[in-house]
Specification:
- 27% of the residues lie in helices and 21% in strands.
- It has 734 residues and is an alpha/beta fold.
- The protein has a nine-stranded mixed beta sheet, sandwiched between helices. A nine-stranded mixed beta sheet has the order 19-18-24-23-22-31-32-34-33, with helices on both faces. Strands 8-13-9 form a three-stranded mixed beta sheet, with no helix packed on it.
């Protein structure tokens, strides 16, 4: 079995015992320096240093997994050798397409030749960016549109797959219902073998193009068929404006009758079906031996499994990550669960909870089946069994079983890891909190800050009791956090084409930032969260849903009011405070610039050439209201009765980051700032970058990317769009 407990909430980051980080005073001259030697550091600091490495293992597997993650071959063109019918094992990576023609397997050498020029975008994987060829958003309103806007799609599925693969170097990946290849490309970029199964020629051709453009180091195989339990030719149904919703029409009432499906006919080409069992003969010369499967075939999952008994007997299937949306109908659900039970696989949600005692109709849209050698709990009456206490079931599990219980790190080997587990496991239930009055002095008595809004008026702090009263009815979406769904109030997508649009389509935005923040908070129960540039509150709400204290700073009234509404609707268990100001290094009134169709790109106009001259900015004037600035140091007086003591900061103020830090020396001296997750897009210019680096160096903070790599030796102009500054002392970096 896979020695892993994968945590969707914290992306299964590895805990190393050592980490070496170089010291440099002249960054630009060290861009080609040698890799630094490794030294030891304290456990707590080491957790922060390594917090963004995307996998978690038992200690016995750390060395192997480290090698997996750090020895990817350089990308490049690879030669392949001819094959007959079965795939031959080769010394170089191959990229081929195969068809089951109704009788046998054939290599398809024509489907991916002389292709048109598809639209190319960038997929943001955990191993770096890679090209992906998409459909026009007008015909693929979910997958292609979301990839275009955010560079991701169903990030939680990708994280789950990657966590399994990085925990076991022998695991391979089978992607059934690959679509344009979001998850297949994630795994290929990781350097692992991929077999992608996809029936729609428009998707297959784009996936071919993406595999070729990626120059991946390991084999990628495309199977151009639908998968079923019989051999036949089937039609594919067209869902309006949703290529990603393409489905097998034949005998598929679950999808065909789905309330969210607008059937507009079928694709012209019929396609052959293959059985999953047929893959055994295709791959006999280079067999799949141990796999993770992603199964997303739009309501046809039961047919796939009905033709997969031999495959599951002969291949060690460790996990099946499955879309459940169209499989929850009684007949289909029982068929799937009986099949899985025969093969010792049991269902969990993405928060570690076993699902056997929950009615199948209430299972979440994506679930994971995990291999376990155990007896399933008795469930004589499904409708009433959901009331059985889960604690009784959990007490019967062995420690070996708990290792497989999913998404947060149940397997722990030291007190620090146990603390991280307890933090996540004991989140309080949500509830309302009473608001209290505040004094009119700078030091406000804050017995409870839930739903409170404060403003610096140029001289002192005041509670703002009017900004969030009698609000209009904003458009409501659902934010998919790692602690569960929560309401979020958004702008209309036409005026906020990135953040609100992406939240509307996928329920997330910049999920890698959310993952990093949640990881730190779950590793230390004393950490609090300061969100500077909160916007409509995607990350603030993520943390509030986790049950942790949040202070959100935002200057735009349209965002503040939506954030108020979201905090109220969420009824979170811990304090949520909104500071309605811009943050700078001086007290003044500033104008906010308007970026066309992009409320999320709102920025301080005054003395902000980095953003104002950005190549991606279309300035169309300014908002009518001027806003007061406060210094980060001013927060010390606002929160003196309930101080921030130890924090993670998210800093995203559209090119104004240097101004924020120039007014933050006292704050950084008095508050234990463990990490600053910062947008770097508009701060990479030499003067600005140097100012920020000097400030951070004074406070023992050093830059890393989101894959644990130090940025000291990389010119700041080449740093990624989001970085993290981590606290380390000099003796830990020698």
């Amino acid at each position: 079995m896979v020695s892993i407990s994968f945590n969707i909430g914290l992306i299964c980051y590895i805990y190393f015992g050592t980490c070496g980080v170089p010291v440099t005073n002249q960054q630009s001259s060290r861009a080609i320096a040698k890799e630094p030697r490794k030294t030891s550091s304290s456990i707590s600091n080491q957790k922060f240093i390594n917090g963004l490495q995307p996998f978690t293992l038992l200690q016995s597997n750390v060395k192997e997994a480290t090698n997996i993650n750090t020895t990817y071959p350089e990308s490049g063109n690879h030669q392949t050798t001819p094959v007959k019918v079965n795939i031959q094992k080769e010394s170089r990576a191959s990229n081929r397409v195969y068809n089951w023609n109704g009788h046998s397997w054939k290599e398809n050498k024509t489907v991916c030749e002389n292709l048109p020029q598809f639209r190319q975008e960038t997929l943001r994987t955990r191993s770096g960016d890679t090209p992906i060829f998409i459909h026009e958003p007008g015909v693929d309103k979910y997958i292609s549109q979301t990839v275009l806007v955010s560079g991701t799609w169903e990030r939680e599925v990708a994280v789950a797959v990657v966590s399994f693969l990085q925990a076991d170097k022998d695991l391979q990946f089978l992607d059934i219902g690959a679509n344009i290849g979001v998850i297949s490309l994630e795994v290929a970029k990781l350097g692992r073998r991929v077999v992608s199964v996809e029936p729609l020629i428009d998707n297959v051709q784009r996936l071919c193009s993406s595999f070729r453009a990626g120059h991946f180091p390991s084999d990628t195989t495309i199977v151009f068929n639908a998968v079923s339990d019989i051999h036949e030719r089937v039609a594919l149904g067209r869902d309006q404006d949703n290529v990603g919703g393409t489905f097998v029409l034949n005998n598929n009432p679950n999808k065909r009758n789905g309330s969210d499906v607008n059937l507009i006919g079928q694709y012209r080409e019929l396609v052959n079906t293959a059985l999953l069992d047929d893959l055994l003969s295709l791959l006999s010369s280079d067999p799949l031996t141990k796999v993770v499967i992603k199964l997303d075939v739009e309501g046809y999952e039961d047919h796939v499994l009905n033709g997969a008994d031999e495959f599951f007997h002969k291949v060690d299937v460790q996990a099946v990550i499955m879309e459940w949306t169209y499989s929850k109908q009684p007949g289909t659900a029982e068929t799937i669960q009986l099949f899985m039970s025969r093969h010792n696989m049991y269902p969990y949600d993405f928060n570690q909870r076993a699902l056997e005692l929950t009615p199948r109709a209430k299972w979440p849209p994506n679930i994971v089946w995990l291999k376990e050698k155990r007896k399933p709990p008795v469930n004589k009456d499904e409708t009433s069994s959901a009331m059985v206490m889960e604690t009784k079931e959990s007490q019967t599990r062995t420690s070996h079983e708990k290792m497989h219980m999913g998404i947060r790190p149940v397997t722990v080997s030291n007190p620090y890891e146990k603390a991280a587990l307890n933090i996540y496991s004991t989140t309080a239930d949500s509830g309302n909190h009473l608001k209290t009055t505040v004094n009119e002095s700078n030091s406000i008595q804050l017995r409870d800050l839930n739903r409170a809004v404060y403003s610096w008026n140029g001289h002192t702090w005041k509670e703002n009791k009017t900004v969030c009263e009698n609000l209009p009815r904003f458009r409501q979406g659902t934010l998919r956090t790692f602690s569960g769904d929560t309401p979020i109030f958004i702008h209309e997508p036409g005026v906020d084409k990135y953040i609100s649009q992406t939240v509307l389509l996928s329920g997330t935005f910049e999920q890698e930032v959310a993952l990093a923040v949640v990881f730190y908070l779950q590793a230390d129960k004393d950490l609090q969260f300061l969100d500077i540039g909160a916007n409509i509150g995607v990350i603030s709400l993520e943390v509030a849903k986790l049950g942790r204290r949040v202070v959100s700073v935002e200057p735009l009234i349209d965002n503040v009011q939506r954030l108020c509404s979201s905090f109220r609707a969420g009824q979170f268990p811990s304090d949520t405070t909104i500071v309605f100001n811009a943050v700078s290094d001086i007290h003044e009134r500033v104008a906010l610039g308007r970026d066309q169709d992009n409320v999320g790109g709102t920025f301080v106009l005054n003395n902000n050439p980095n953003k104002r001259n950005g190549s991606d900015v279309t300035l169309i004037g300014q908002y009518r209201e001027l806003v007061n600035t406060a210094l980060l140091d001013d927060l010390l007086s606002l929160l003196s009765s309930n101080p921030l003591t130890k924090v993670v900061i998210k800093l995203d103020v559209e090119g104004y980051e240097d101004h924020v830090l120039n007014g933050a020396d006292e704050f950084f001296h008095k508050v234990d700032v463990q990490a600053v997750i910062m947008e770097w897009t508009y701060s990479k210019q030499p003067g600005t970058a140097t100012t920020i680096q000097l400030f951070m160096s004074r406070h023992n903070m050093y830059p890393y990317d989101f894959n644990q790599r130090t940025l000291d030796f990389t010119p700041s102009v080449k740093w990624p769009a989001n970085i993290v500054w981590l606290k380390q002392h000099y003796n830990e970096r020698r």
